[in-house]
Amino acid sequence: MKNRKNRMTRRSFIGTAGAAAAGFTILPGSVIPGLGHRAPSDKLNIACVGIGGMGNSNLRAVAPTENIVALCDVDWGYSKKVFETYPNAKQYWDWRKMYDEMGKSIDAVIVATADHTHAIIAATAMTLGKHVYVQKPLTHTVYESRLLTKLAAKHKVATQMGNQGSSGEGVNLTVEWIQNGEIGEVTRVEAFTDRPIWPQGLNRPAKGEWVP
């Protein structure tokens, strides 16, 4: 395990982020040797908790270069196609059981579950020494955010939140231009949004049910 952790550090877990629709890129191209080929033993073993929506998008982005070893979701009906896409990945309903059984085989965890569960899943992963990529929002409280910051430093793991729009190469390059004075003094910034870009919200259920 010691050698594996050292290899993780040299290889670097987090790379540049892709476009929002594409999810993210875990490794920058500069660390991929040869003509884009790496031996299976030199790839990250990744688990994903919450594999619908953004979780599925993140998986598609990272699957070409890394090993998807475990998938976890509470809605197996909705996740059926994703499970089928990665037949070699072990399937779980409970992320705690996944950590118990697969902990020694997992290098990094993608967290894309319901918002209020992000902190506990990420905190547990970091405590186990796993690198984490957590979809926004990172936490529900300032306390949780500070706790995750302390855990990341204590366990020396790489972390990143899924702010694809503000962590991509284009944004980084623009920041460098401004900081280096390459485009002069910036006195005005114009921005726009096209949201929502698809129908939002849920349909009213055909039959109401009492809250248990």
Written overview of the protein:
- The protein is α/β, with parallel strands linked by helices.
- It has one domain: NAD(P)-binding Rossmann-like Domain (Rossmann fold, 3-Layer(aba) Sandwich).
- 34% of the residues lie in helices and 12% in strands.
- The chain is built from eight helices and six strands.
- The chain has helices spanning 2-11, 54-62, 80-85, 95-102, 118-127, 142-155, 164-167, 169-179, and strands spanning 45-49, 67-72, 90-92, 108-111, 131-134, 159-161.
- A six-stranded parallel beta sheet has the order 3-2-1-4-5-6, with helices on both faces.
- Strand 5, helix 6 (142-155) and strand 6 form a beta-alpha-beta unit.
- The longest helix is centred in the C-terminal third of the chain and has 14 residues, at 142-155.
- The chain is globular and about 55 Å long.
- It starts with a helix and ends in a 33-residue tail after the last helix.
- Residues 5-35 have low confidence and may be disordered.
Counted up, domains total: 1
CATH second-level architecture: 3-Layer(aba) Sandwich
CATH names the topology as Rossmann fold
Strand order of the largest sheet: 3-2-1-4-5-6
User: Would you count the extended β strands for me?
Assistant: 6
Global shape:
globular
Number of helices in the DSSP assignment: 8
Task: Give a quick summary of the entry.
The protein is an alpha/beta fold and 212 residues long.
Write the layout of secondary structure elements.
Blueprint: H1 2-11, E1 45-49, H2 54-62, E2 67-72, H3 80-85, E3 90-92, H4 95-102, E4 108-111, H5 118-127, E5 131-134, H6 142-155, E6 159-161, H7 164-167, H8 169-179
Parallel strand pairs: 1-2, 1-4, 2-3, 4-5, 5-6
